[in-house]
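Protein modeling request. Please complete all fields; requests missing the sequence field cannot be processed.
Requester role: graduate student
Desired output: 3D structure, token encoding
Chains: 1
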Amino acid sequence: MTTLQHRAPRRDRADWRGWAFVGPFLIVFALVFLAPLAYSVYLSLFRQQLIGGNAFVGLDNYIQALSDPQFWESFGRVLLFLVVQVPIMLALALGAALAIDSGRLRGASFFRILVFLPYAVPAVVAVLMWGYIYGDQFGLAGNINHLVGFELLTPFAREWILASIGNIVTWEFVGYNMLIFYSALKTIPAELYEAAALDGAGQWRIVSAIKIPAVRGALVIATIFSIIGSFQLFNEPNILRPLAPNVITTYFTPNMYAYNLSFAGQQFNYAATIAIVMGVITAVIAYVVQLRGSRAEVR
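Delivered output (299 residues):
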């Protein structure tokens, strides 16, 4: 009886030790995530006025954002970017992962490094490099146009600028997604391949019946990451803007719109509102994709 009474307090103290380990993470999480989010929500409920200063306006900023044509134009642009660019990028990444995992590709290790290498290039450097290639007056595109005698390549034209940015993003992130898929493929037990070979299954049958189902979870994760990245599109158009100022506007993407509202227009409250609206939209779409992917995986 006495021994049990002495052990109970020790069990209680052991429970608090877990909080001691988790505590530093929770503090950092609160400072770098929860606090900025709460401050953004706070800012979105106010508006800087000429008379009266910073006044509480409730949901007026959100009503203005939902009826803002520039916001919806930028949102439609990144949505189109998402629908077109993400499937192409993931298909290329999956194809590269399957090729490396097949065992029939000569120099697979070199090929894997070659595909992944663009992801190791800093984003700013990559965009500047592609900006020089796209230059129709000084870059590779300009040289090709001069060679053929007419404007064959116009990457900075209004009808091609989104595709040009999509090409840069695809070049940057195919290798990253390829590694995600390749890692998932390496977890497939060798017994499955042996059983498929005994049943007389060919390579295409193995890919469709074994490999593709095995990477479904990784495909969902890569899709969610790509959706978030598409809605956060900022670096590429912002860096390319000096090269195509008449095509890439200050509201080319929602992130650019919020950035320019805040730092160029000094409209911090409305910029916070745009950021929160985009965050909610991104979270909802990512959750729907995750939910559908989980249901498909269960089936």
